[in-house]
Specification:
The chain has 180 residues and is mainly α. The protein has 7 helices and no strands. Helix 1 runs antiparallel to helix 7. The longest helix is centred in the middle third of the chain and has 30 residues.
């Protein structure tokens, strides 16, 4: 369940880094503004990593990771309505926050569930699943854009995959509580 959640989320995790600047320019924004939107993603992810860790230590890493996956999905809905700089920057803040939180929490949550002598192997398998999603996701996203002439369908797909990931993580969190 944990690896499947990481896999589905990975289709969406890095996609904006490949497409949001193009989307912003297509919407009529300048190249400089599009670059600032991407930079905002990176800037926002830094404090989010710290805050997510604090929340996860208090409420459970897997549960908070599930909420981060859901928030990441919601950011794609914001992107689907972005038509001006304000909405693109709102997207970049929301996406950056949840993207940073996901990246920070996943290794710790993995260690919570799979600690022991096989942790390195399991972490490698989960990162491999994520790598496949991160490799294929932006390509599929671009193909959907080229086919339909809009990022909307791809954004809705990313939203759905993130919600599937969130549901899987919440199930992992519930199973952990039930076995304690």
């Amino acid at each position: 369940l944990f690896a499947a959640g990481s896999f589905f989320m990975a289709f969406a995790l890095l996609t904006p880094m490949a497409h949001v600047a193009v989307s912003a320019v297509d919407a009529g924004l300048s190249v400089q503004t599009a670059a600032a939107i991407v930079a905002t993603i990176g800037f926002t992810s830094i404090p989010a990593r710290i805050l997510a860790g604090t929340l996860a230590d208090r409420f459970g890493r897997s549960a908070i990771l599930g909420w981060c996956y859901a928030g990441l999905g919601l950011s794609f809905l914001v992107w689907s309505v972005a038509a001006d700089a304000k909405w693109f920057f709102i997207f970049s803040v929301v996406y950056g926050a949840f993207q940073g939180a996901c990246v920070a929490l996943r290794p710790a949550a993995t260690a919570d569930h799979f600690s022991g002598p096989w942790l390195g192997t399991i972490m490698g398998m989960i990162y491999f699943a994520s790598f496949v999603g991160a490799l294929v996701g932006p390509c599929i996203f671009g193909h959907v854009y080229e086919t339909f002439g809009s990022y909307d369908y791809a954004s809705f797909g990313a939203f759905g995959l993130c919600l599937i990931s969130a549901a899987l993580m919440w199930r992992v969190a519930r199973l952990s509580v039930e076995t304690e």
